[in-house]
Design goal:
Among the domains are: 76 residues, Roll (SH3 type barrels), CATH 2.30.30; 91 residues, Beta Barrel (OB fold (Dihydrolipoamide Acetyltransferase, E2P)). With 270 residues, it is an alpha+beta fold. It has 8 helices and 9 strands.
C-alpha cells in the first residue's frame, strides 16, 4: 500500500550515527533531554495512525520520516511532535469540518485576490529602456531606406541580449558513495536554531573525486565526534568515502556537503 499524500524529499541528509540522531531529536523537542535511545513516532492523518521512524532531514526545519512501506515523507518537527498528543486527531477533525464549511467562501476570496494581484502586476511592470527606445523608433517619421533597414535590424536584437544571462547548468552529482581526496581549509561553526550551541563544521578545499570530473572546489561536513578522534588540522590532506549532496553551508559560499564520510585518513599532514 502506498500513500498519495506523501511529500518525498529530493535529497536526504543522513545522520552520521545514532548519537547524532538522538541529539537532533532532542534539539527538535522530539525526545527528552535524558533520552538515550530513539523511539517510534506516530503519523496521524485522515483517521489513520501510522508508525514511522526518523531517517534523516532536509534542513533544520524539515524532518524526513519513513513509513513501514519504505515511503519517505517531509514534515516539520513541531508538527510531528504535535501528532504524538492524544488530542491531535480531535483537533484535526474539527479543523477539516470548518474547512469544508468555508471552502466556497475561501475559493471566491482566493480568486479575487489573484485577480487583484494580476492587475497590480500588469500595472507595475516597468518597460525596459531598450523596449522604450524601440517604440520611439517605430513612432518616428519614415526616413531613408538605409535608416529604415537599421531600425528593422535593431528591433530583434533586444530579446537576444536578455537571453545571454542564463544560470549555469547544475552539477550532476552521482548518487553512490565516492572516493574523495581534499584538504582541510577551515574549522568553523554555524547557527543552530534548535539548540543553544552552534554546529561545528569542517570546510574542505582542493576537492578531487576518483573517476569523476566534477566542477566542485569546496565541500563541507559536520565535525562529528568520529572525525574529532582523528585530530585533524588545517592544511591536512585527507581521503575518505562519502556521498556529495547539494546543500549550502549557512553563512558561507560552500554549495555542497559530504554525507556520512567513512574510512577517512590523513595522507599528507600539515
Amino acid at each position: 500500500m502506498t500513500y498519495s499524500f506523501v511529500v518525498e524529499p529530493v535529497s536526504v541528509l543522513d545522520f552520521d550515527s545514532e548519537d547524532e540522531l538522538i541529539d537532533r531529536c532532542k534539539e527538535w523537542n522530539l525526545l527528552p533531554a535524558t533520552a538515550t535511545r530513539v523511539k517510534t513516532y506516530l503519523y496521524k492523518r485522515n483517521g489513520l495512525t501510522l508508525p514511522v521512524e526518523i531517517v534523516g532531514y532536509v534542513d533544520s526545519q524539515t524532518v524526513v520520516i519513513q513509513f513501514e512501506n519504505k515511503q519517505q515523507h517531509c514534515i516539520h518537527p513541531a508538527y510531528l511532535k504535535e501528532m504524538q498528543t492524544a488530542a491531535f486527531g480531535q483537533r484535526a477533525a474539527a479543523a477539516e469540518a470548518a474547512k469544508a464549511d468555508d471552502s466556497a467562501e475561501v475559493t471566491e476570496e482566493t480568486k479575487l485576490a489573484e485577480d487583484i494581484l494580476e492587475e497590480q502586476v500588469s500595472q507595475d511592470v516597468e518597460v525596459p529602456e531598450a523596449e522604450t527606445a524601440s517604440k520611439e523608433i517605430l513612432a518616428a517619421p519614415e526616413s531613408s531606406d538605409s535608416e529604415s533597414d537599421s531600425v528593422k535590424q535593431a528591433i530583434p536584437e533586444i530579446p537576444q541580449k536578455k537571453a545571454v544571462s542564463k544560470k549555469k547548468a547544475a552539477v550532476q552529482l552521482p548518487e553512490d558513495k565516492l572516493v574523495i581526496t581534499a584538504r582541510i581549509k577551515e574549522f568553523t561553526t554555524v547557527p543552530n536554531h534548535f539548540s543553544d550551541n552552534d554546529d561545528e563544521v569542517i570546510i574542505y578545499e582542493a576537492v578531487s573525486v576518483e573517476g569523476h570530473d566534477l566542477a566542485i572546489e569546496e565541500v563541507w561536513s559536520s565535525h562529528s565526534a568520529t572525525l574529532k578522534k582523528l585530530e585533524l588540522k588545517v592544511g591536512d590532506k585527507v581521503s575518505f568515502e562519502a556521498k556529495i549532496v547539494a546543500k549550502k553551508l549557512t553563512q558561507h559560499p560552500v554549495k555542497y556537503k559530504i554525507n556520512n564520510p567513512s574510512k577517512m585518513k590523513i595522507i599528507d599532514a600539515a
